[in-house]
Amino acid sequence: MLNSKKNRFKELFILGIITLGGFFFPDHAIWAQEGIPYISNFQLPPGLNNQNIAIAQDDQGVMLFANQQGILSYDGYDWEFMEPEIRPHSIGHDPVSSRIFVGLENSFGYLFRNELGSYKYIPISDPDLDYGIIEKIVFKESDIYFYSSFSLTKINRDHMRTLETVWAKPSNPYAGVFFYKKSLFVNIRGKGLHVLTNDNLTPVEDGRSFDNVSVIFYMDYDNDNVLLGTDNSFLYLFDGSEFSDFILKDENYLFNAVVTDGISLTDNRVALATLTGGCIIFNKKTGTTDHILNYQSGLPDDEIYSIGMDREGGIWLTHEFGASRVDLSLPVLKFDSYQGLEGNISQLIIFNNTLYISTSEGVFYLTEVKNYKETEVIMEVLVPSYPKNTGLNNESETNKLVSNEINEQQEEPPKEDQKNRKPFSRLFQKKRQKAEQETEIIQPAPATHDPQKQNKSAVPAKKTFQTQYVRRKNLVLESIGHEFKKVEGLDAKCKQFLIFQDKLFVASNIGLYQILEKKSQYIIANSYIYTIYPSPVKTNSLYVGTESGIRIVDFVFSEARVRNPYPTIQTPVHSILRHNGLLWISSGSKIIRLKNPGNSEKFEMQNYDTPSQDQAIVQRLGSESVFFTSS
Questions:
Q1: Tell me: the pLDDT tens digits for 84-95?
Q2: Residue 388 region, left (φ>0) first, then alpha (ψ -120 to 50), else beta?
Q3: Distance CA 312, CA 387 (A)
Q4: pLDDT category, 479, cuts 50, 70, 90?
Q5: DSSP state for residue 418 in the 8-state scheme
Q6: Residues near 191 by Cβ (< 8 Å), separated by ≥ 6?
Q7: Sheet holding 322-327, edge to edge
Q8: pLDDT of 609
Q9: Strand, helix or coil for residue 490
Q10: How far is CA 413 from CA 171, 192, 373, 417, in A?
């Protein structure tokens, strides 16, 4: 039964492409700007616990979830408990043996599948030892590691026996592990980062910087570095001896969302699960965000319980309402979740890296929206300290000087590029802010009055500086989203886009328009435009099908000149094709053929009736001119 269902996931997403097949994408029409990848949401049946805290996929393609009620499986059709007698906290697929390993409280082992496809938990841990809650399973070349806050156990994959267990002190539990090549690093709460050497944990240089944080995930960044994530939403690169900040362009959103886990994807991308901001997908080489997937994007919830990936590259996210699969490989992107779009969609196109959509209400373009919230921070400033005879010797005037100095600075959203920061500068940021908030204004101690020294005023007083702390309002990035905005000056039913000579044109029911800098400019006004067709003969000319014949627009030195070459044609023109020296025109169900179309005075015109009463469309198919009707 499982074999017959294992390809169900692919069928679901192929169906998604077929469903969207009604959209018309011209040659220039997709891709570019950030749409939403195709998301499939799978709802849990009533009565099942929704706490799926870890994800794995078995060799049959079935998705397995570490659920508080047992091992929960989903094969694309049904949810069911495969092993309801255990309470797993972690689960992982071994790429070498294809076994599924499971971590419990004070126990760990693997799942054995019988002939009927049912799983049974086989423990390999010592039942007399208290390992703690096994939170993570790490697979290496010949060994497997089971990690908890109080123990780190290594087993041999071939013999399924414990090789060693390194125990944490109760007062200093473990706070994350990661590998750099073959070296195992363990973070210890209150003591910082250590490396495991000959069964002993040795402190590493700069390791104390991690004494109050937990390493929640790691992955290979390149041949020389690993990428680490900590529970305070900071990212770091580690080359085996030194750490450096990894700067994400949208890190302010990351800090507000609170990172809980991360996985490595293909094409240099990383996916992060968050507590309040959904899933963030970014390019690890550039630090730029590819997608932010949250409630606005189509996820049922913003709180992600766990994140995983299947063998087809799909991202699995669990949340309160079940599970979601994100397919980045499908050439399908959604835009309907973004606000601001009005009317019935007729066409999409990408121009200058911006998505434009024509609808029955006008033309709309997709733009990024960053939402900021106002916070109050404490700033450290150096201000001049003047002697008493300057007149700036009292607290109010000095504070006024500080206030003026701060107000002169332009208030702006925080800069996103902060690559010049020193490593670990962010780790102590909150500590500094807390200390600063407790300090209002620090004034230097008053100088003692000495009449004798006062008489020695021949030498000008030297200006010095003092440190003061002032409050300043700051804007912090809270969320990043997208919305559609309408192109100005075009309140019309728009049907067709055309990119011609690096310009964007749109046909509407009130005229032909060019879109410039998100605004519209008319070329032909007060006319119903049915079609736009670039001339294959003159590279600077456009054929335009209107409600009363054909117009030709010639572009001469960026100036648009409109002419009527065939004044005898006064019928609506729905499609145009110039091929083999002939100009073909469809008008309703009729076909018009023009010989010698380049001579507006000596052309020959012939009319044809089609068998159908439906509107005809003329197009080139290979070397032939072909007419299509709807029936």
A1: 789 999 999 999
A2: alpha
A3: 73
A4: low
A5: -
A6: 172, 203, 207, 208, 211
A7: 306-309, 315-319, 322-327, 36-43, 333-334
A8: 85
A9: coil
A10: 42, 34, 10, 12
